[in-house]
Each structure stands twice: as structure tokens, then as C-alpha cells.
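EI: anyone free to look at a 71-residue chain?
SC: sure, send it
EI:
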Amino acid sequence: SLEQNLGIIGMKVYKSGYLMTVGGFTPQQCVGFTLDVPGIDVIIPGFDDPAQVEPIVSYVASHLDGYTSGL
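SC: here you go
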């Protein structure tokens, strides 16, 4: 994607909640894994409840150094 100057969007990183309810993963683990995939530039997690937004924003903000090192 970089060679072609394209961005890649990670969508549905929770797989409609399946990864959390059946897989036992936390929302932070789902987001962290997706952001660690080479080439992913942005994610659209999708939330069912506004209360789900703050933990993910806090998680990403606390890990920004790792995600912006290539800028």
C-alpha cells in the first residue's frame, strides 16, 4: 500500500462482539492487534454504546508512540 500511496482501513475489529464474548479478548486487545498489522493506517472499530469509546481512546492515546514512529 505504501508503494502505491494507498491507505488501508481496518474495519469491524471486534467482529460484532464475537471476539470479546466467544474469544475472550478485550476491546483493547482487538484494537491493539489490528493497529499492529503492517499497513493498517486507521481503524473503524464500531461501538454499540458511547461508554465504549473512552477506554479505546485512552488505550490508543497511551500507545501513540508505537503507532506514530513511522511518521
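EI: The radius of gyration is 13 Å.
SC: 👍
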